[in-house]
Amino acid sequence: MPILIQKMLQLILNKKILATSLLLASSFIFANDIGDITEHKGSGGITREGDTIITALGLGVEQLDKIETANGRLKMTFVDDTVLRLTEHTEVILTSYYYDPNKKSNSKMAMNFVSGTARFATGRLGLVPRENIILTTPTATIAVRGTDFTTSVDELGRSLVILLPESECTIDGDCSPSGEITVTNIGGTVTLTEAYAATMVSSLDKIPTEPVRLDNINLNMIDNMFIVNPPKEIKQAVEESSAASSDTATSILDFTELDTDYLAKDYLAKDEFEFTELDMDLLDVDFLQDVLVAIETIDVLRRGSRAAQGTEEFSGTALGFDKETQYNSIIDQGMGQLWFYREVNAVISVRVPIGSNTTLESTNEDKKAVITVGDGSSVIIIINQSG
Fold first, then answer.
1. pLDDT of residue 21
2. Are 231 and 176 within one domain?
3. Helix, strand or coil for residue 270?
4. Exposure b/e, 274-289, CB count within 10 A at least 16 = b
5. Is 25 helix (H, G, I), strand (E, B) or coil?
């Protein structure tokens, strides 16, 4: 065979080998599975793209999976060696997981603990920087620093967070914490630095209780019983927190009718009337707009830093019902949230924390509505509509 032909064939063969190698490497780095179930007992299920998958040993887990245990328990191990354990009747959403092998600082992980009791231990491999791990409950955000901790969430969203030890304590109670964690919401932040230190978060806008050390417990005792019967130290901390709030509040006996200036407030001003869910008129919408067929949403709760002052918190739609955008906009002071609700032949319902920097963009072919909360730079929610 002529030498030139031999070289050409060898060149083609080398290109095929290179292409195959790149394909295999790409599949390894960007594989759908971000971990798998390494321990399994009882029953559970994964909701993925609208389908329900029965959990089993060795089953892979993916980003955006909603994982629920029924009468069962399971352990998940992720590619960076992070471990997540779920007890019975627990629900967790794997919000996001991204690993960049070329630049570790780009790697990220986020989970939402919805209900039940879960134990989280950061990976020993250090593939995902701990500052890029975002863990949330309905009432708080948890930041980890080389940590093993557990959280229990009840049906009202109240969250009990406990920092666990590096190893089981001695008979004298001596043990080292696995690191430290901060628990944050609109009300404020507390930091747990001791083994078995705990805090309770009652609502999104109420500061977590001061840390307390739980005595006479071990790792095997932490389960859903803490939801129905919290440790006595936590009960006392909650009572003290409530008492402190009452002490700082001004007593009604400090006021008389003579202290009230009834002329200082214009009760007939339009802006003073509160718009609530009861004021929404679902018939006052444009039914000629195209029906929602596909919706792509990212539902992200981000901690706010200030209370609502009025409509200056958002722009792009009116407070109350806006005929142009078809949105009902409600300021929910109790939950510390802004609620944007729209119902034509389908429903858009988005809640974001007051004080967050969020952009909500919905498009319907040639018609677009853009609502901006704060400066809109931190969170972007996109809803695409087509008919």
1. 35
2. yes
3. helix
4. eeeeeebeeeebeeeb
5. helix
State the pLDDT at residue 84.
94
Distance CA 370, CA 360 (A): 6
pLDDT at 9 over 90: no
Q: CA-to-CA distance for 311 and 140, rounded, in angstroms?
A: 25
Cβ neighbors of 170 (< 8 A, separation 6 or more) are none
286 and 224 in a common domain: no
Task: State the residue range of the domain holding 186.
Answer: 31-245
Same domain, yes or no: 117 and 211:
yes
Closest CA to 69 of 56, 50, 83, 82: 56
CA distance 309 to 284: 27
> What total number of domains does the chain contain?
2
Helical ranges in the chain per DSSP H: 3-29, 225-228, 232-248
Tell me: do 73 and 207 sit in the same domain.
Answer: yes
Is this prediction's pTM over 0.85?
no
In tens, the pLDDT along 88-126 reads 999 999 999 887 878 888 889 999 999 999 999 987 666
